[in-house]
Amino acid sequence: MLNVRALHYLSEVVRKGSVRRAAAALGVDATAISRQLKALEEEIGLELCERTAAGMRATDAGELLVRHYQNQKTTEEAVLSRLDAMRGLHAGQVRIALGEGFIADLIAAPLQSFLARHPGIALDVQMAGVNEAVQLLKDYDTDVALLYAPPQDRDLVAHVETRHPLHLIVPPNHALAGSSRQLDLADIQDCRLALMGNQFGMGQLVGMVAQQERVELAPVLRTNSVAVLRQFVLSGTGAAFMPETTVQNDVKRGDLVVLPMRHPVFAQARAQIASRADRNLTVATQAFLDHLRRNMRFFREHAPDRHGVPA
């Protein structure tokens, strides 16, 4: 039997990049961690970590053991949660990472109704751009993530995926507001524009299309906040790229106008609820995921089709 404590220490050393930082995070003495790792290496006859300029890195053997430990841990969590479910879903914790663009939809009703139905379940909600959210999943630091325009990744599995194209959002008095055709980036080169940073799915899509269309955009504002984008457009200052669902209520009131873009990269953008492919979801996490699937506008249905693209 492998020493579980040693595996836990190894996992933290690899995650933190050093024995000292792992010791500080775990609240144990660094020499205790070093002793446990040395004993584990002697037991299996292989080195588990190597020093690099960036810090401690797992060898192939170390990566295998860390993956084994994380899988063992999540399997145990899933078993315990199913035992809880047999007694009734009264307790548990769900960790979720999501971009700011999903917050209004989540807070509107789904979060409140889930907590009312399952008062014993605690939610840990962490804001993160798509790159950070994917990494949180890979590092086992979150159970599920709500992702917009995520990259393809074989380590992850999408439990729900819906079509939510990225559109140009403008105020009603904007010069392009009355346009009846799909736009190219060249059409908006002279517009005052606000863009999300490149660590977010929205920013990555715009950057990808700009490169393909050989268009250089010069935004007057860059931000990491969807709320800032929305206020930028509502104030009449300029235009921004957002999925229609993010500003659905503003569009219905006539405060904002949705202009579809012609490039298929924009039209094919998807929203996902994802987790690690090798991770067993706890009963509480599965219940929360199913609740979001039924109750969040982003995942209950596809966005209105303004491109003629199949769902």
Keywords, please?
about 300 residues; alpha/beta; five-stranded mixed sheet; elongated
What topology does this entry show?
Layout: H1 4-16, H2 19-26, H3 30-44, E1 49-52, E2 55-58, H4 60-86, E3 92-98, H5 103-108, H6 110-117, E4 121-127, H7 130-138, E5 144-148, E6 156-163, E7 166-170, E8 193-196, H8 201-213, E9 221-223, H9 226-234, E10 239-243, H10 248-253, E11 257-259, H11 264-267, E12 270-276, H12 283-295, H13 297-300
Parallel strand pairs: 3-4, 3-5, 8-9, 8-10
Antiparallel strand pairs: 1-2, 5-12, 6-12, 7-10, 7-11
Helix pairs in contact: 1-2, 1-3, 1-4
Summarize the structure.
It is built from 13 helices and 12 strands. The protein is α/β, with parallel strands linked by helices and 311 residues long.
Can you characterise this structure?
The chain has 311 residues and is of the alpha/beta class. The chain is built from 13 helices and twelve strands. The protein has helices at 4-16, 19-26, 30-44, 60-86, 103-108, 110-117, 130-138, 201-213, 226-234, 248-253, 264-267, 283-295, 297-300, and strands at 49-52, 55-58, 92-98, 121-127, 144-148, 156-163, 166-170, 193-196, 221-223, 239-243, 257-259, 270-276. The strands form three sheets. It has a five-stranded mixed beta sheet with strand order 4-3-5-12-6, with helices on both faces. It has a five-stranded mixed beta sheet with strand order 9-8-10-7-11, sandwiched between helices. Strand 1 and strand 2 (55-58) form a beta hairpin. Helix 1 (4-16) packs across helix 3. The longest helix is centred in the N-terminal third of the chain and has 27 residues, at 60-86. The protein starts with a helix and ends in an 11-residue tail after the last helix. The model has no long low-confidence stretch (mean pLDDT 89).
